[in-house]
Structure formats: C-alpha cells, structure tokens
Write a structure and sequence with these properties.
It is built from 18 helices and twelve strands. The chain starts with a helix and ends with a helix. The model has no long low-confidence stretch (mean pLDDT about 85). With about 500 residues, it is α/β, with parallel strands linked by helices. A twelve-stranded mixed beta sheet has the order 2-1-12-11-10-3-9-8-4-7-5-6, with helices on both faces. The protein has two domains: about 45-125 and about 225-415, P-loop containing nucleotide triphosphate hydrolases (Rossmann fold); about 135-220.
C-alpha cells in the first residue's frame, strides 16, 4: 500500500460515522483531492462546540453557511450572529453556477441548490424581530457581571432587586433601574436603610454611571418588554427543516459591551430554560457567533469566567456553540479547550506577530504524519481548511486538509425588497415588535414620590394654617388683656377714686 492509499484509508476510517452526519468535503494531500476520503462530521457531536478560524477572505463565512444550511436540512434549528451582514443569502437557493458543479465533481457528489427557512432578528436599529429581556430576568448577579461592579456595588444591586421583589416594583428596563438607584439615594434612603442597611451614595453614583455607559451603546433597546422566548429559536417549518435565525448585527461592531451583554443573557436564558437532553442523536439548537472576538474584547475576568462556565454546561442542554473569528488566539484558552470541531482556514504570515500566532494555532491541532501543520496553514486556498473533529465516541479524529463543499444557498446578500418580503411574512414579528411600557418601578416610584410630596405639602399647609390660627388667637387674647388692663388701671387710679368719693359725699349731704 503506497502513501496515497494509506492516507485515503486513514481519513476514511477517521470520518466514517455510523449515524447521521454532515458531508463537509473531501480530504487533500499534496494539492490533490480524494473523493474517497470524504470528511463527514457526526451530527451527534455537533453539540460539542466548535471553531471556524482564518484570515479575511479565506471562506469562513461560507463555511458557516455550509454548516448552518446542512443542520437546517437535518432538522436542527440554528442561530447566526451576522455581524458583517453577508449571511442573508441562505434564505434563497443558489443559482448553481458552473464552477460549483466542477468543484463537486472533485468531491465525488453532485451539487444541489436549496434554501433554508429564515427568521431575521435584531437588538439594534435594524429591521427584524426584536429581541428584548427585562432587567429582572438578568438578576443582580448577571447584571453585576455585565456592569463589572465592585463587590460593594454588587451588594447594592442585590438590595435593590430584593426591595423591588418585596414591594412589587417590576424592574423591566434601564429606566426602572436608574429610578431605583435615585430613590435609594434620596427619597427612599431612610426606608431602605431601616430594612436593609446603609447604602453609599458614592456607590450608587458609580453604578448609575456604568448604566449610562451601557445605554450609550444602545442597551435601552434591548432591555424591556416583551421578553423574547428562547424556545422560539427551535422552530421548524412544514418540511421539518430547522429555522435559521439570523441576528442582524452590522451596526454594533463598535459596541462590544452590548454584544457581550446580549450573548451572555441569551446563553444564560437558554441554559435555564432548556431541559437536559442527555446523549441525543442531534443537537436541539446550534449557535454560530461570527466575529467572536467582539464578545471577549472588553469582557472583564469575571465575565469571561461566566462565559466559560456556560460553554461548559450548555452542551448538556443539547446546544452547540461555534465561534467564528480570524485567529484561534482571539478565543480565551479556557473556552478554546472546550471546542470539539475545529475548521481552520488559511492564516497569513506578514509579520513576526503573525508567524508567532500561526505557530500557536498549529499547536491546537492533532499531530499528523501527512501534514506539516504550520506550513499547511499558510498554503491553504480559498474554501479549503484544516479540519479536526470528534468521532461518535467523543475522540479527536485525524487532521484532514479539506476541500469544502459549496453552499447550497445563495453566496450573496438579499436585496432590500427580498429582505422586506421575508420580514413581512414573519410570524414572530407581530408577537415581539409591539412596544410595551406597562406600569413598572419607574412609574410606581414616581407615583409614590408624588403622593409623598403631596402629603408633605398638605401637612405643611395644615401646619401653616394652624400656626396662623394660633397667631390670630394669641393676638386677640393679647388685645383683650390690654383693654382689661387699661380699664382696671383707670378704675384703680387715684383720680378716679377721688372723683367717685366726691360724688358720694355730695349725695350723702
């Protein structure tokens, strides 16, 4: 058996799942593609998380598209974070250009055009089904992680949430939370301190400033009602295809805090809502996070710990997470170590820093006698990648330089009219796009403060009226006393007495 035959058998054995799978492409060796060395990813392991990495223009987004549409056809719903705005074409079938058929001849199976059922979602100013969450749903601990507050400030947030629970004050949006911070600092300070202890105004001021900073990234659109139900991400169409939910995020690239806030909230909600799945044949939901470095760009150590914990635990809920970024080093090593499927497109070695990054990236893949991984990373073409997966028993498979299949859907964006048509057909839009501003902490506290101020004004007016009445009574009494005194003074004067005695003497004579 020569080296080529040995290589084909090696790959065939490594990527030969017994259950359902995604046919990703065919393995290559020395620039030759071997259709008999098919690279098949077991559907059963798609909840073990993964990474799609590579330099700009090497085909990461198309790989994401391939995985998403194949998962959809297997009945697995998908959530895509579309930061660049180039994934909407998955809603329309490919035009089936000749070069796509030529590519699939090399892979050994025919090219077929297809589309996926799509739902467009948004947390920003872009059109789509609006995703929201209430402040109460975040809770004090998760909110503290997002705001990166001190332990003392975290304690204050815990007190505020407890006070609101005890006094039936719903915390729905950031307006409610800011009002509560102002209330515990001013009007409600005495009441709060009697029940829960002293609260520092300096600490509440610091929390308020951090909330304002979060608002400046557009968070006020995300916090509020109606809360998005994560079970709506798991819908399927009449054919049994899983919906591809595309989160439109092209206008938040410069707002990493908002992006990480949304992602952490979503993952936490999925984890708490979804039941334990055990070892199922396919995932319940798969999330693809494009430009994943935005999550970690400004995340604190505490927030990174929270993300790492969720990544570890959410697999048991039947949920897979896939990070899409330029370099594996963009993802923290603690998270990177949890990823089962790695698809590494080409990296470019323009600087010493690039060469160092390539060396580190090569160390993330299994050692192979067929490839010099470090050199292979710089010589891959567009639509080619190094693939390392897990087999059905969870063991790392052999490294395979792979020519990837082409997307079945359109490899271009939808027109504005096509987008509008799909959004108009959405069944979720009427459910979530109605703005709700029911009575919550902000309105209830304002009402409470107004009532307190009205009561105080009334009591003050009554006190002033009483004082005026007392003053009038005192003045009247004083004048009466003065009159009586004057009369007494006249009656007891010597002149008056002599006059009276004179009159009496005359009468007696």
């Amino acid at each position: 058996m020569d080296k080529t035959e040995e290589f084909v058998e090696h790959i065939s054995q490594a990527y030969n799942p017994k259950g359902d799978y995604i046919h990703l492409g065919a393995a290559m060796l020395n620039d030759e593609t071997f259709a008999d060395a098919a690279v098949k990813i077991p559907l059963k392991t798609m909840n073990r998380h993964g990474l799609i990495a590579g330099a700009t223009g090497t085909g990461k987004s198309k790989t994401l598209q391939i995985l998403a549409e194949n998962l959809s056809q297997k009945g697995v719903p998908v959530l895509l974070m579309d930061v660049k705005g180039d994934l909407s074409g998955i809603a329309k079938p490919s035009a089936g250009e000749e070069f796509l058929h030529e590519r699939h001849k090399k892979l050994g199976f025919p090219f077929e055009s297809s589309k996926s059922p799509v739902e467009f979602l948004t947390i920003s100013e872009q059109n789509g089904v609006r995703l929201r969450a209430t402040v109460s749903e975040f809770g004090p601990i998760l909110l503290s992680r997002i705001l990166d507050v001190t332990p003392t400030q975290e304690g204050i947030l815990a007190i505020i949430f407890k006070y609101c629970d005890d006094h039936h004050l719903p915390l729905l949006d950031l307006k409610d939370l800011k009002k509560m911070l102002q209330y515990v600092t001013d009007e409600g300070r005495e009441t709060i301190e009697k029940e829960y202890g002293r609260i520092s105004s300096a600490s509440t001021g610091a929390i308020l400033r951090k909330i304002v900073a979060l608002e400046q990234q557009g968070a006020e659109r995300f916090f509020g009602e109606r809360s998005f139900e994560v079970t709506d991400l798991t819908r399927k169409d009449k054919k049994g295809y899983g919906y591809v939910n595309i989160m439109r995020l092209t206008d938040i690239q410069d707002k990493p805090k908002l992006f990480s806030t949304f992602m952490l909230s979503l993952l936490a909600e999925i984890y708490t809502t979804f039941p334990e799945e055990g070892d199922s044949d396919k995932p319940k939901l798969v999330l693809f996070i494009d430009e994943a470095h935005l999550i970690f760009k400004e995340a604190s150590d505490v927030l990174l710990d929270q993300i790492e914990s969720i990544v570890k635990l959410i697999r048991s809920k039947g949920v897979g997470l896939y990070f899409v970024t330029q370099n594996p080093t963009d993802v923290p090593s603690e998270v990177l170590g949890q990823l089962g499927l790695k698809i590494q497109h080409a990296l470019r070695a323009f600087t010493a820093k690039d060469r160092k990054a390539i060396k580190l990236s090569a160390e993330n893949y299994p050692i192979s006698k067929y490839y010099d991984t470090k050199n292979e990373l710089t010589s891959l073409g567009i639509g080619e990648a190094l693939v390392s997966a897990l087999d059905e028993k969870g063991r790392p498979s052999a490294l395979a330089a792979t020519m990837l299949r082409a997307p079945m859907s359109r490899m271009d964006i939808l027109s504005d009219s096509e987008l509008e048509e799909l959004m108009f057909q959405s069944k979720l839009r009427s459910k979530y796009n109605e703005e709700i501003d029911r009575e919550s902490a902000y309105e209830l506290l304002n009402k409470k403060i107004e009532e307190a101020e009205a009561k105080e004004a009334k009591e003050k007016a009554e006190a002033e009226a009483l004082e005026r009445k007392k003053a009038v009574t005192t003045t009247s009494k004083s004048n009466s006393n003065k009159t009586q005194g004057a009369i007494i003074k006249v009656l007891t004067s010597a002149t008056f007495i002599r006059g009276v005695m004179g009159v009496l003497n005359k009468l007696l004579k």
